[in-house]
Amino acid sequence: AQSVTQPDIHITVSEGASLELRCNYSYGATPYLFWYVQSPGQGLQLLLKYFSGDTLVQGIKGFEAEFKRSQSSFNLRKPSVHWSDAAEYFCALDTGGFKTIFGAGTRLFVKA
Amino acid sequence: GAVVSQHPSRVICKSGTSVKIECRSLDFQATTMFWYRQFPKKSLMLMATSNEGSKATYEQGVEKDKFLINHASLTLSTLTVTSAHPEDSSFYICSASLGQLPGNEQFFGPGTRLTVL
After folding, report:
1. From B23, which residue of chain A is nearest by alpha-carbon distance?
2. In the prediction, which pLDDT does A59 show?
3. Does A52 score more than 90 pLDDT?
């Protein structure tokens, strides 16, 4: 079955610290993978996406993600978190049938 | 980037009434629009996919007679929740895409909070 799992419901990091949000997927073929950020009152914004090629993907706002086929993972990272990064983060899988499956989300809290 | 708006941002209605939510792509023509429902502390669940000028495709378990979707133009899709009940209270999000190719980016609206009393 196709699925996306984000194991961490919420994470708290200190401002300036590094961040890694975990995402695991289940899909039989090469997936299209996305990370979105949702801030209150705003729509989901695409941070980055992976289709093929280089497994390390650079996105906006200083985020990057690494696709690891052997681990079925697509973890999101940022070397230094800013207070404005506090939001809900969603990992998503496009199965090619034009149906996007979202993970449950990880709420990021940033402490001063 | 492409902008998608939703109106209203929040609505409160009485049980039994119908509510219409609009989704507009402001600066591009959206061949395909999607409607999602997001439960508290849960993920987005796709309700239906609509293409301009054709009937919407509903996901399994979504009542098409209850959630009426109209995609009358390349910039507007509407979701009407008919005879709303408290269990329909939720956060409804639309998205729009330039096409229906795998991996096509979706642009999301800010969502509509529906509360049914």
Report:
1. A43
2. 96
3. no
Q: Which of B49, B104, B110 lies nearest to residue A41, judging by beta carbons? A: B110
Which are the contacts of B87, defined by CB distance < 8 A and separation ≥ 6? B116
pLDDT for the residue numbered B51: 86
- Asked whether A23 and A91 are in contact (CB, 8 A), the reply is yes
Cβ of residue A52 closer than 8 Å to a chain B Cβ: no
Nearest CA of chain A to the CA of B36: how many Å? 10
Which token pair is B85? 């009940």
Burial of residue A65 (CB within 10 Å: 0-12, 13-18, 19+) is buried
Q: Which of B5, B7, B44 to mutate to test the interface with A (most CBs of A within 10 A)?
A: B44
Interface contact B41-A98, CB threshold 8 A: no
Reported for B24-27, long-range contacts at CB under 8 A and 24+ positions apart, including other chains, are B24/B75, B24/B76, B25/B74, B25/B75, B25/B76, B25/B96, B25/B107, B26/B2, B26/B75, B27/B2, B27/B3
- Put simply, the answer to whether B100 touches A98 (Cβ < 8 Å) is yes
Phi, psi angles (nearest 5°) of residue A40: -55, 130
CB contact under 8 A, B43 and A99: no
The first and second tokens of residue A58, run together, are 């650079």
Which residues in chain B come in under a pLDDT of 50? Answer: none
**Which residue in B108, B84, B113, B110 sits closest to B2, CA to CA?**
B108
